[in-house]
């Protein structure tokens, strides 16, 4: 025992894994700390094994049952090394495989599972993303960390391998942890080294591969790819040869979408992190796992290339318009096997006979699909056929025939894996087997005929093998040659020499047959594996048809329309809806129009009126159009955007414990840096996470900057009414508001978006509705009226307290400040109020009696001298903060 535990601990040390499963005979055992961990995580029973005075916790699972445990551990983020017995006498053990989150071949479920290696070289980042379960290998290079993180996040990786220079970069690693659920793993520095890494890539994909994909052969992309390959090889998962193709892409082929935006728009998960209620879940009518993966990939990677989008829209249009044909296509796809995954399983040697049967069954659908797509004139005119053209139909038919001819109808059943006639040797063994079985089947008849035993049966069990069983009434008649093996209550069991011999022969034949089957099956599986890229092509074609049919299905069920794509900066949506919200409520459609003099819309309206929904639906319509889908609108002209950026104010997010004002400002800063004239920006209550005066300042400055410098199409919902004044001052800014109606003190949300700023007094109606006492409600109406008129408001003392009654206060609407104007200072107050309204107009309010101290004067001078247009919001925030301190 001690020896085994020592061996376990030594192997564990060597392996670097979190947990080791070590084969001991028919079990995989976990010892010591690993046993406790496994017991805690997986409910396995721990026993104490003691030997030589020490005792060790130990837990085990049968050899054949490791997979589910392995899967659960890895899905919980652990890496698990597996040590197997090797050598003739099974005495040496070695780690044959390390299962890690990013290389878990056993993964079930439709989701892609990416391992992403990231290398930084100067400002360039190389990203290599591998999904071993599907053989997908993607490669890209991007400039700057922000884009690298955005790109990384899109893969939703399970595991990230930071290159040597990034490992010590806490900011980077922290950001990865924040944006993804990935495990960060360390892989040897040499694997990332230029010479070695790129050698790996050339070995696998051929000499010209890197050149062909346009990355520099020693650059960060190539190094990331090499390191990823090396890591996959080292884990021993055995799928390298299913990585048949390097699929490079340029990050700017896709619409920029940072992690925050993906989360805000709830593309694949809701803000709460659930799939249910996300855009992907709402849209998903796919009938295959491959199709579901493709749909998701399209949604998180909308395209900028118009030709490809028009092609998808053409396909969706054809399928949307022809319900019968669409149903036929979807029925043909329904139940198709996950060919990408099966290709990987064949390569790794883990595919079983039924998996090959499913490959056959799925390949057989290709000609059916072609028939469906070409026989109907309405589909034949669309580019749907091109999707299937990407599969070598002849090679697919050949492979299908090969495998189909080889396999029995129900492989693995009574008749074995292979069809009769496939292999002479196997047929001979099968015939021999059948003869022997027949000999045993007819033995009882023969005995009855040849002897005077009538109560005799032939049977077999595990301990005794075959035997003749004779009832006690006849045991005195059994021939001499019978050898008694067991006595039961009513009968005795016998064997004969002939039976011994036949049984030996049968066991030998069974063994030989199984060995031959294994041999042939390994060959057949290897043959299929050698066609991995064909299976992947076929899988991708089926995935694409499935995803297109899914778009069509949703479009037709929900009256979505084809967007008109434009190369200019148009965005013109008529009667748009929110794709997810429209599923659950009676939705009021709204237009969204951008154009000349309308590139920045300030959206106002009472709480809960629908501002956030309106802005999100507009962003989603653009994204859907650029994912290749139809859109929830009566019509939509969409100028292709290069990025969608959203930010929700910290206050809204704070409620969910997600964000701080600092994060809000960092993200605002990202947007101001990244967005371009071709982007769509959605800001929801930005600036609300701080005191209202500096909140307004930031919102104001950000608006000016977005309008003047960035010039992106922008939707900005705000409760800072002051911002509505910008419409009069900046040529591209327009006000829109979500309407609500007040009747008899009731607020009804109409949810229609109209031009112009919102009325401001809904807050009071809401207070009224909420049951705030009448005197308070009527008093607040009164205060509001005075404030609007810039009139001084008297401060009413409480009935019980001493009454100073006469003090007056002016509320400066511009800054949100209250100023006492007690002892006859009424005139000053008025001047102050007006001064505050004129931003940047230089308030000269500080006259005689209210002379400012020199420090305040200095602050004012700095404030006047601040060039808002050329300052970052963060910068401004810091300055405001500093001014406040000085004024205190
Ligand atoms: P706001 O951002 O103005 O506070 P929201 O956009 O969060 O308001 O909308 C509040 C609620 O109103 C949403 O949960 C949604 O159910 C409903 N809603 C919003 N817009 C519409 C609409 N156009 N038609 C129907 N219901 C809507
Ligand atoms: Mg809102």
UniProtKB/TrEMBL annotation:
Pfam family, one: MutS_I
Keyword set, alphabetical order: ATP-binding, Coiled coil, DNA damage, DNA repair, DNA-binding, Nucleotide-binding
Keyword Signal tagged: no
Residue ranges of every copy of the DNA mismatch repair proteins mutS family domain listed in the record: 679-695
Gene3D superfamilies for this protein: 1.10.1420.10, DNA repair protein MutS, domain I, MutS, connector domain, P-loop containing nucleotide triphosphate hydrolases
Region of interest called Disordered, as start-end residue ranges on this chain: 816-872
GO function terms (MF aspect): ATP binding; ATP-dependent DNA damage sensor activity; mismatched DNA binding
Listed name of the protein: DNA mismatch repair protein MutS
